[in-house]
Design brief:
- There is one protein chain.
- By secondary structure, this protein is mainly α.
- It has 5 helices and 2 strands.
- A hairpin with a 5-residue loop joins strand 1 and strand 2.
- The longest helix is centred in the first third of the chain and has 16 residues.
């Protein structure tokens, strides 16, 4: 049995027994902390985009800061793919975090 199947089975068993998704969401929060990708930063954004594509059906998304947030749920796969590409294009078009967030001066 592969690792993927064992993880799936563990989450399915937990969710069915408890009738809630808190353990699944806790795993996502832990796994998507940006600090976990400090040695391989190029892996984070593609992984986040793929995860968000699936999570958007449940009305959730992982922000760049690794925080789960509520979004409008999508109904179709093309809509989920479009939204994931749109978010990724916004990030790739920014030359720096300052450009991405805007050119406003920081308020210290």
């Amino acid at each position: 049995m592969t690792k993927r199947i064992r993880i799936y089975n563990a989450f399915a068993e937990s969710q069915n027994a408890r009738q809630d998704r808190t353990h699944v969401l806790a795993f996502i929060r832990h796994a998507m902390k940006p600090a976990r990708y400090s040695r391989e930063p190029d892996r984070y954004e593609p992984l986040r985009a793929l995860l968000n594509q699936a999570l958007e059906f449940a009305g959730l998304a992982v922000s760049q800061a690794g925080v789960l947030q509520h979004v409008d749920a999508v109904q179709t796969l093309p809509e989920a793919i479009f939204r994931a590409r749109e978010l990724r294009a916004d990030f790739k078009g920014a030359t720096s975090i300052q450009t991405f967030l805007g050119s406003a001066e920081p308020n210290y």
